[in-house]
Amino acid sequence: MRFVFDHLGIPHKELTLFVFDDYAIPFSRTLYLTLLRPRQHSEKPVMRPGKSGSVDAFATALYGTVLHIDGRYRMWYTALPTVEDLPILGAGRPGSDLGPHVAYAESTDGIHWEKPNLGLKDWRGRRDNNLVGLDAHAFIPIVLHDEKDPNPNHRYKMFFTNHGYTVSDGDSAQLWLAYSLDGLHWQIAGNKGILDQVYEPMSVFRFGNYYWATGQRSVPMGDKFGKRFMVNYRSPDGIHWLNARGNSMRRGAPIDCSTGFKGIQGHQGEQVHLGAAIWNRGNVLVGLYGMWHGHDARGREPVEIDLGLVVSNDAVHFREPVPDFVMIPSGGQGDWTYKRVVQANAFISTGDETWVWYSGAGDPGPSIVSNAAVGLAMWGRDRLGYLSAEPLGEEPHLLTAPIDLEGQPTQLFINAEGLGPQARLVCQLVDDLGNPFPGSEPSGPLQNSGLREKIVWPVDPSLRAPDGPVRLKVSFTGKRNRDIKLYALYLSKGE
Asked: Looking at the DSSP assignment, which residues form a beta bridge with residue 33?
């Protein structure tokens, strides 16, 4: 099945319709959207920098990835031993012993992390560390696990920025690729980057038939400075990339540079920091992006960075469901997230919850005192936002985008709470005008709250659509329909 608007044309066994996705749910009556901030795990942060003299003594920065594989949580992160190892200070250039490294941690519960002594990489004359076997000053390790790759040595793929090399214009921010059998021993693909574009990557993912790379770029536009904005690149195989970018998302007006440009101006205003980290749900992409707030012209020091929510249905165009809504805020003086937080490729649904790991960004002010550690944000499973009935609203309901069920029997499931005998959800197949299809009966009323409650139809246990695209109408009914909080719909193939 697929949405009619899906130009990629890829059929799915299941469609996820988040209520904040206004492409999947474009129409509603007397309903309003509320986004939810997560709760933080009580161990704040869940992983801290190492002891003095260790590879991550200065910063345990989750500019990186968390995956859940074979019952283990596996983390690849950026380790910085000292302030001199910061890439923004030039560390990692050819001939330098300084620079970032990719370190590894693992956990059985996602909360208590161990940094195993891997013994794989020499670091200042020692191998008793948790650095992976990668011959590069790598920054922002983006790790994919592909069990279906016919080459077992390519089952793990790491995309990263290599600060040990420079590109033709002198900037080191380009995309490199390495392969691994186990996620620990890595071999770089070739001897140069695979994407010769000057940008800072944040996420690489498969969507449709392509690999996509998102990140941050800032370019002058005539006498205007473009500031940081989100870009993306596309590849059929993860190696050969289209030599053109998509401009995915911008914030704020360009800076007027008609009277001359000063470097500190590039930090002013509202910007997009490092693009977005992406959670691929098959038919829709959900992400967290860096909300850069440049309050004045004193350079980086006064900048604050929060995390905001974005969504995309085509991997090119990203939008905020609620503009400028802060999902994960930075902290105040003395907090481990003081001033700045950074997104990570670390979205995992486990049990009844959705977990997201993220990082403090450190403070690159005059003292450059890092507070980069790793935190854990937690929502109810897929419960990042909900629709509810407006006060005094009449006939509250929503209409989905047209869906082609391709003649297959389909099950409909609901993620909602606040349901009961006087607060029910009723579903029905309708046409483009919202009128019921002839012979289509409404579902039995759903009055049980849950993360994945099955909708029961009066005649056939499965949802069977007439030929051609259909829409789903979901009505909020009952005297207490304002109690209902609807988070998501799931359409799944099968009886």
From this structure: 387
Residue 220: what pLDDT? 56
CA distance 205 to 183: 17
Residue entry with tokens 């038939």: 209
Residue 223's CB is within 10 A of a number of other CB atoms, namely 13
In angstroms, the CA 350 to CA 342 distance is 22
Mean pLDDT for the chain overall: 88
Instruction: Find out whether the peptide bond into 152 is cis, omega within 30 degrees of 0.
Output: no
Give me the domains of the chain, ranges plus CATH numbers.
2-36+389-493 (2.60.120), 39-382 (2.115.10.20)
C-beta neighbour count of 59 within 10 angstroms: 27
- Identify the band that residue 469 occupies on the pLDDT scale cut at 50, 70 and 90: confident
Task: In whole angstroms, give the CA distance from residue 75 to residue 227.
Answer: 31
Looking at residue 367, its pLDDT comes to 44
The pTM is what?
Answer: 0.93
**pLDDT for residue 370 is more than 80:** no
168 touches 174 (CB < 8 A):
no
Q: Which residues are CB-contacts of 160 (< 8 A; sequence separation ≥ 6)?
A: 102, 136, 138, 139, 140, 141, 142, 175, 176, 178, 201
- Across the range 320-325, mean pLDDT stands at 97
Cα separation, 411 vs 462, in Å, equals 5
**Residue 38, Ramachandran bin (φ over 0: left; ψ between -120 and 50: alpha; else beta):** beta
- CA distances to 69, 70, 481 from 107, in Å: 11, 12, 42
